[in-house]
Amino acid sequence: MPAHVRFRHEFIAIVLVFSFATFASGQSSTAPSHSAITHPQVKTLKVTILSTMLADQGIGEWGFSALVEADGHRVLVDTGFHPETVLQNAKELGIDLSTVTDVVLTHNHDDHVGGLLTLRRELIKKNPAALSRAHVAKGIFYSRPSAKGEDNTMIAIKQEYEATGGKFIEHDHAEEIFPGAWLTGPVPRVYPERNWSVSGKVETPAGLIEDNIPEDQSLVINTAQGLILISGCGHAGVINTLTMARGEFPNEPVYAILGGFHLFPATDVQLDWTADKLKDFGTSYLLGAHCTGIESVYRIRQRLGLPRGSAVVAAVGATFVLGEGIHPGRIAQ
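RE: above sequence
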């Protein structure tokens, strides 16, 4: 083959290889990575406390419930302890719960599920779809045997709730329940927070073990300001829960944490560790209800360096509004 022909063939081959490499490089640089994936964000959000200990409106109790209203969606998180508390508090606050179709039950304890049946039976008189879907995490129906018999009231509640036409939706991993709102499902226990007080046992597929409330779950709202965590008791640990949320939303700060976090029995060392972790997450607001503890809220507020209006003990009727912050009510302001 003549030299000039051989040169032309080699040149064409080099050009083709270079062109393919450039094309492949361009394709790989424009392909979406996990970190580049964008999640829907909630634009409007209001969270109203309907059950907790403090109250200057309605009835206070050892329990938790909150109404979440986001971009036209309405979800009830937990249902309080006594059967009538949330129903009566909602009426006194002028809140109509009959249009709420979904309820999140964070775990099996009576102070979070006690109002479910009363609310369902009363609200269906106005709207058959009211509280017709109950979101729970895997493990909530596990047996809790005790010397007195079965200690998990959710087993009996399940039958009665389903008899009204209600349906349980069980989550074994994080899932979006409407755009921008995620349920964690069961939370991995990365840190040994041990945020539970019960001393009983739970019957799991792996056998009878210490009841660390394996089904504990929280609601995470994604907003332009950052993540907002709504927790019933936080038995999985608030830092464990936020660590899991950070895995789904790796670049988002934690804008606010609202609800119960079971920190009332925590030592000063534990509270300081928790506050330091919350600072790392960039936490701007704390509305501590139920089992968070009054002193715990104040100590975390001081450790985080938050102003008085940004870290508040929750009361019945207190709200968090996106873009406005916390409206604490008279007793907790």
